[in-house]
Every structure is written in structure tokens, then in C-alpha cells.
Amino acid sequence: MIDGPTFEATADQVFFADSPLHVGWEVPDFFHHLPVQAADPDELGGEIAELAAALFAERSNEEQFDAAMVFLAQTADLIDAGAQYAGVCFVDFDGRPSMATLVAQRVERDAGGLRATADAIAGQLSRHAPQDDVRVVEMAYGPVALRTGLTSTAIPPEISPDSLPHEVPRRFVQAHIPLPDDLSVQMLELSTVSVDDWDAYSRMFGEILKTVEWATDDELRTAREQRTAASAASEPGDEARHGLVAVSSRVWDLIKTEQPRVGMSPELDRMRLAFCPTCRVSGNEAPCTPEHLWTLAPVEAAEADSLTAHLEDRLTAEGWTWSPGLPSNPGRWYADRTAPEPARLALRHSPGSTALHVTVTLTCRHQPATAPGPRR
Q1: What is the pLDDT of residues 173-200, one digit of tens each?
Q2: Residues 93 and 197 sit within 8 Å (Cβ to Cβ)
Q3: Count of CB atoms situated within 10 Å of the CB of 136
């Protein structure tokens, strides 16, 4: 089941050649990107082959090849259509396989105000597809023309959950966002053949739509410089890094002993200084608490339960105090120790991305050397 109303996300930024605006949005981390920005056929073919092997690891080489051919044809069509971004997700809703596609495209528009442009787009969509639900909504960044509809599509056996071909209904929602450059409209579309899961996907699209933002080159450069300065000020020192590594290395060793096949995601491995609740409330402007965040995958829900039970046995024997999450919030576990240095271990399982997220936290550097602050 996809987690709650919030989603772990990665930002995707695109650029329209004739516009001064870069547009960004956030995509849930269980979406797999289709390489519509591949530089050449070799890169395109290689990335598609890797995607098919990762998504269908349990199927034969022949089935992976067939799936790659389907993805290749789909991606080639999207490239020809001028797509800037495309992603697919394969998730599980209470044991039921489900899939969806997200596509983004930037197109030209006539000069004019944002509201007038949105109204004009909505009018064109209504005349083109009177059976669809078309309306204009106001977002924090301006008016958006929304179109929601139902059509049908063919699902080839290579990527269907039961390996059989199907002609199935497809639900979709499009957002046409006029941008304040008198030149372009950003279009995002989410579609799914898993129509039983439409409510969840439509909520997901609403969350994605809230993250849309844009900036000029100068604004991006300023923001980048600010992030660089902030990052330099929020890096843990050598002593803190040593303490974080000591805890994380021990946890990693225990995990590999229990489940040798699980792997670590290097791109999600990072150390930082965060704000503890006390310093945040008091208005302290400097981050204070060393954290090490890393992620393991693939880890199914049953494997996460087994793995954390193993960690509980071993860490309790080593002086850690273990506590599971609340019944209303399953898939979360915590452990604390007081010596040789106070530390907290938090684990969170994400069923949507089959990942186990690990956070190691040391003591706030602004407070006396006691156990880490309240759980967040």
C-alpha cells in the first residue's frame, strides 16, 4: 500500500529552450524514470535494459527482453512527442498489483494573462472531449486547467501482472499550467489502467501538482549559492562522523548477517546536521544534531519484520533499549542507547518502494550529553 498522504520524492527539473523559466516538480520515489532525455540510441537502449531487469527481476531473461522492447517503443513514442519527463510505477495495494504512468511536456502558448490562458485551454479541452471533466482550479502559483477522463488502452503481455494481453480501461488526469513567460504551458499527466486504485492515484497527482515551481537562471544560481553555504554550515564534524559511522557499521553488519541479498542505495546515503525539537522550538539558527540517513532495498514487509526482530535481539544484548512503533503506524521501529555515546536508531519501512530507511542520530551538540531528543 502506498504510504499515507505524504510521499518521499525526488525533484525533476526541465527547461523549455525559448523560455527563461526552469520548471520543477517532485515525484514519489517509487516511480522509475523512462530515459526520454537519453543522448543517443545506445544510452537509451542501455537504460531501458537496466529498467526492465530491475522491474522484472523474478522473470526470465526472455520476458525481461520482451518488457524492454515494450518500454523502448513507449519511450521512443514519448521522445517523438516531445516529452520532457516520463515515469512508471508498479506498486502493491493490499496484495493487488497496480501500475501508473506520469508524463510531462512543455508546449508553446499565445501571449496573454495566466487566467485567460487557463480558461482558453479549458474551453478547447471541453470542446475536444465533452465527455471528460474539465475545470480550472487555483493553485498557490496560479490557475491550472484540469482534465479528467476515461479511455481504453492495450496492455501487452510483457508488462501485464499476469503475463496476458488485455484491452483495459484507462483513467487519466491532465494539468495544463500556464507559465508567466507568455510562451509556454507545462502539462503533467498521470494515467493508470488500475482503475480500482484511481482514488489513491488522483490524490497522489494532487500532491505532485502542489510541488510545481519555477525559477529563472539568476534565481536558481542564487538558490544554489545559498544551498552551498548552508550545506557547508550543516556538515557534521569528524568526531560526529566517527560516531555515526560506528553505529551504522554495526547495524549494517547485523543486517548483512541476517539478509545477505539486501543492498544499500549509495545515492540515498548522507550525513547532515539537523535540528532537534528543543533547538527548533527555541529558535536556534544553527543545526545541532548529527544524523546519518541510509536506505536498504529491496526489503518486503515480511522481511522488514524479520530483520528488525533480529536487530532487536542483537542490539538489546548490546545495551540498546528497543521499542516498536505504534499499532496505528506500523513499519516503524526505534532503539536507544546511553553508552558509550547516546544514540538513537530509527527504521522505517516503505512498502511502495520496498525500502527500509535507516536513521542514526547522535546527541544535540547544543545540549548536555544526554540521550537524543524526542522522536520525530
Answers
A1: 999 999 988 788 999 999 998 898 999 8
A2: yes
A3: 15
